[in-house]
Amino acid sequence: MSASPASAVSVSIDLGERSYPILIGTQLLDAPSTWADLPKASSAVIVTNNTVGPLYVARLQAALAGQYPHIHTVVLPDGESHKDWSTLNQIFDLLLAQGCDRKTVLFALGGGVVGDMTGFAAACYMRGVPFVQVPTTLLAQVDSSVGGKTAINHPLGKNMIGAFYQPQRVVCDLDTLQTLPAREMSAGLAEIIKYGPIADMAFLDWIDAHLDALMARDPQALAHAVQRSCEIKAWVVGQDERESGLRAILNFGHTFGHAIEAGLGFGVWLHGEAVGCGMVMAAHLSHRLGLVDAAFVSRFTALLARAGLPTVGPQLGTDVYLHHMRVDKKAEAGDIRFVLIHQPGSAVVRGAPDALVVEVITACCQG
Ligand code: NAD
Ligand code: GLY
Same domain, yes or no, for 169 and 187? Predict the structure, then answer.
């Protein structure tokens, strides 16, 4: 950790020649120093959407003006339903129409949808151009902008077409969170809370004590939460960039959560909401396997509820849950693999008897 020129905290993600800093602070967007020492190019392209663009794109354009002779902007339609080939093509259309060369730097200004699509476009355009993540949702600042997973959705599966492709830098300007809807803040809190039981129970204690400040968007509380989350994610990704093992622990709550999202239809619950409830279900399963005690499950569930997240799953029917969990990316030959709490502060990826899984679904869901 060190101080950057713009007085941000910098967390580094160590991946050899693909290493990069995550800058975290306030007033970063406008400060030219935030954007210093990025790859030189004649063109920069800002990719954003029709919600975030009107709020922040002019400021980013102004900050980059001294560095890039030509700055172009692509404004995509907002929403997970647009995370697809035809929207991705809008980025390629602009890049080609403007004659952008292989040094062009892409800037992803928005939440995880814009970040995942811009990263994938950067991975593909001319077989790879540099890109910078400028996440503006809490979820994107603590999770999706870090670690190089990029993707679009396919009608038959979420995030199924993509690449591992690391950004040059991640810039988390905490001021942008002030305009985020409350429901999106709660969704981001789910991904922050996730880091406690899988890696750092002291952090979970800190979140418990500072949840009101986080929900009130206190800059100091947000700075610590984003920094600690990024440190944990950087530690995991630094050891297992391509998810051959350890990185799977970052999917705590995602197996049940994915079934909720897919079973209800994507977009009915936000991703973070489904993950929050999925973590409750995974904690119950950990308890039924004798890994954690009931007091841990109660305390964890109460914290998620205080964060404004649903803790009772929708009544989709056991078969629907099992069906969607069997097509999860972690499943092996149809056997469901869960991220479970081995003991508070440490996670394990393993299977569980169907009978126990059914017990959890029955106990944690209602109509
Ligand atoms: P999102 O990108 O859809 O953003 C949520 C909403 O907030 C959108 O309507 C957006 O326009 C709006 N918004 C963004 N910033 C705002 C701001 N500052 N003020 C006001 N409104 C703002 O959703 P998300 O939760 O950021 O990201 C979810 C996506 O991230 C999913 O597609 C998921 O698959 C992906 N994801 C990727 C990874 C990864 O490792 N790459 C990890 C987790 C999630
Ligand atoms: N969000 C999970 C990961 O980046 O691996």
Answer: no
